[in-house]
Amino acid sequence: QKEVEQDPGPLSVPEGAIVSLNCTYSNSAFQYFMWYRQYSRKGPELLMYTYSSGNKEDGRFTAQVDKSSKYISLFIRDSQPSDSATYLCAMLLQGAQKLVFGQGTRLTINP
Amino acid sequence: GAGVSQSPSNKVTEKGKDVELRCDPISGHTALYWYRQRLGQGLEFLIYFQGNSAPDKSGLPSDRFSAERTGESVSTLTIQRTQQEDSAVYLCASSPRRAVEQFFGPGTRLTVL
């Protein structure tokens, strides 16, 4: 079993829809929870991260962490074609530097 | 300012040959990381450098893989006697000391024929 599980999709939604992306994990010691966006043939770029449990909002993006369920989510409101990319969740232990990634979900927003 | 740069962007090699991949981190970033991304997969950690400390090599998949870093600048990842299963995108990232965010380069796409 992988430490971090993420549905690879692909996921295709119409422009303006609310998108929900999710990951589950097995290591309860993870403390930092990240979402990276990766465009085709580019390196990943950090969208946002959360420390421990709770929600964090940044514009159209909201990240949620539920440590009791070992489940994290990224919501994208008013999705745009420019949001089409692969979204990777990643996690980090306190004091560690090695990111543990999910497989990535390929998202397409259709105009 | 300039981001993380990697070279070459693409590398095609024959099975059994050695390859060297280069990473130039963001100036002033003391930490440097190498990851591997196989087609349709997430990133796998390979190795981590922090300043002059001994590197964390725990992710290197075999002794055919090695990496070096000159001080707090350039790093090279070397794969000896390449195998077809080494085909992947090799990504380098850097970060300031003790920072959570890692800044990624565009990667080197390695194809082993």
**Largest sheet properties of chain B:** 6 strands, mixed
Termini distance of chain A?
37 Å
Work out the oligomeric state of the chains in this entry: heterodimer
- In terms of per-residue confidence, which ranges of chain A show pLDDT below 50 for 5 or more consecutive residues? none
The portion of residues forming beta strands of chain B comes to over 45%
Total DSSP E strands of chain A: 11
Mean pLDDT of chain A, nearest integer?
94
In total, the number of strands of chain B is 10
The major beta sheet of chain A can be summarized as: 6 strands, mixed
Class of secondary structure makeup of chain B = mainly beta
Mean pLDDT of chain B: 94
First-to-last CA distance of chain B: 37 Å
Shape of chain B: globular
Residue windows where pLDDT falls under 50 for at least 5 positions of chain B: none
How many DSSP helices of chain A?
Answer: 0
Helix fraction of chain A?
A: under 10%
Structural class of chain A: mainly beta
Task: Give an account of the 3D structure.
The complex is a heterodimer of chains A (111) and B (113). Chain A is 0% helix and 58% strand. Chain A is an all-beta fold and 111 residues long. The model of chain A has no long low-confidence stretch (mean pLDDT 94). The termini of chain B are far apart. In chain B, strands 2, 4, 5, 8, 9 and 10 form a 6-stranded mixed β-sheet that branches. The mean pLDDT of chain B is 94. Chain B has strands at 5-7, 10-13, 19-24, 31-37, 43-50, 65-69, 75-79, 88-95, 103-104, 108-112. In chain B, β6 and β7 form a beta hairpin. Chain B is globular and about 40 Å long. Chain A binds chain B through residues 4, 6, 8, 32, 34, 41-46, 49, 88, 90, 92, 97-104, and chain B through 4, 31, 33, 35, 40-45, 48, 50, 56, 58-59, 91, 93, 95, 100-107, 109.
